[in-house]
Amino acid sequence: MLGEGILKGLAETAKNFAGSYVSKDRLTTVQYPEERIAPIEATRDFPFLVYDGEDWQAGLRCVACQICEKECPPKCIYIEKSKDKKPDYVGKPQIYPARFDIDISVCMSCQICVEVCPFEAIKMDTVFELATEDRFGGLLLDRSKLAKSNEYYHTIHPTEAAEVDARLAEEKAKVEAKARAAAEAAAAKAAAAPAAGAPAKTEPPAVKPAGGAE
Amino acid sequence: MLEKADQVFVLLLHWLVGYLPAAWRPASGVLLCVVAIIAVYPTLFALAVLLERKGLGRMQNRYGPNRVGPFGILQPVADGIKSLTKEDIVPFNADALVHFIAPLMLVVAVFMGFAVLPMGRNMVLVDLDASLLFFFAMGASTELSVFMAGWSSRNKYSLLGAMRAVAQMISYEVPLLLSTVGVVMITGSLSLVDIVDAQNRYTWGLAHWNVFKPWGLAGFAMFVIASMAETNRSPFDLPEGESEIVAGYFTEYSGFKFALFFLGEYVGMFGIAGLGTSLFLGGWSSPLAVLSWVPSWIWFFSKVMVWICFFIWVRGTMPRLRQDQLMNFAWKFVLPMTLLNLLVAAEWRFVADMWLRWIAGMVIVVGAYVLMGRVGMRREHFGPRTYRYAE
Hints:
The complex is a heterodimer. The model of chain A is unreliable at 200-214 (pLDDT under 50). By secondary structure, chain A is an alpha+beta fold. Chain A has helices spanning 4-22, 56-59, 67-71, 112-116, 143-146, 150-156, 158-195, 199-213; strands at residues 47-51, 77-87, 93-103, 122-124, 140-141, 147-149. In chain A, β2 and β3 (93-103) form a beta hairpin. Chain A has eight helices and six strands. Chain B is 66% helix and 1% strand. Chain B has helices spanning 2-6, 8-17, 25-59, 75-85, 96-112, 131-152, 156-187, 192-199, 214-230, 242-245, 255-280, 296-317, 323-350, 354-375; strands at 202-203, 206-207. A two-stranded antiparallel sheet of chain B has the order 1-2. In chain B, α5 (96-112) runs antiparallel to α6 (131-152) and α8 (192-199) packs across α11. At the A-B interface, α1 of A face α3, α12 and α14 of B.
């Protein structure tokens, strides 16, 4: 009969209305400033710079290669290279960003800077209460505001951070092994050189036939 | 004491006016009544908006506004301050004068209707002989202001909204009027005071409300439907369908003018609810003789508020109609039902036998409802749709 569906619908909304006062389960709204739910691990909003160790300036992984600056679609990253160099995590001297600003009012949270960074230096943050009274300056984050420790990275994205750490450790081990091999070779050479000064001269001819044979 | 409580506003008025010289009394009395009406209904409007937002929230399993004041009860105040402090924007191409007048006209027209509504025993501003006619005349003039708003804005959405509003309001004006004709036929008067007085009688302790009679019940149902469409309430809110045409005829209004439209809409709802209450629900009379001691104005305003709550309930339940559904419903179902209802009312008037007129009335009303629901509102099945791409 006409109107049956309307009555059913009215009963349904009445049930919802009354039910929302009786059972708390119906009200799924999180009363935000007082109540919070933990963000899921894949949450991301704006990039930050990772540093190792205690001192953020010494431990900054960024080498100011400017790939992220070039790749950034809305062009919200500004980098100035340093004149001097500082050792990176493996101890190799690298230039570092004298200035690294991200304008988060422009950033669109695309994560492309993270994807392209070869040094695992830039990662996505999860902070979201970034409202400020200063519309321009307050949203332009500089190096000191962007730098966050690796421990912090572990707290916000544990799985990803562990993978990154493993990768870096592997790389570092490789570099160290290479360095050790080089050092050993150098040491062996150094040990061999004073023992026999003349035989060193005979070496090039020994190599040549091998190259010719190939 | 109870007599005094019932007449408290009337006595207050006489007491206040008593201080003035006799020559000024009629004019100042009317002025005071107008001030009271203009003060009471916007307050009720604030209450209704809060009820609507909280109620709709609960129907959708949300909390609704709960930040401003305890349980969010100061939300209307915040809304008011917000709309007052907003910039008043008039589009460059708009007809500035008409654009300015439209919201004022709407509010004025809507408030005029209250002049003839009996809000309690002896509580009516003007007891016109043709007060029902006056009310409908004022109600119809809201269409003009709606169209003025849509036309003067020079905006396609405004104009579309205004066209829809006018088409809808004119379509539903007919059943709205016809549904009340039955009451006039039985009561023999166009005066709302007389209509309420006629319902303020009791048999076996039960009031003679028009809604308790077959023609009254059918008329009431049709009146409720038509009044929803007339006040542009969901599910008949096509003129301001947000998802289709931004906000309809008040798209180009901001700040306080927008608030005036909002106010006009809600006060219009109170007006039509008050009219429906007076026509079908006994106005200020109590439903049971034993409850007659409750002051009459409490009955009137509580009935109006229940009516508003029903509107909110319906809004929380039903989706918006499509334009063709709206028109089909008006012309193929509501209008024939109201016309048939005239027959039932005539039958009620002229058949003397108590049982016969009850049975005959109920048979016609229910039979027509079922039949028309089956035939008139039958959904047309076009079969599965097939699509063919252009070559």
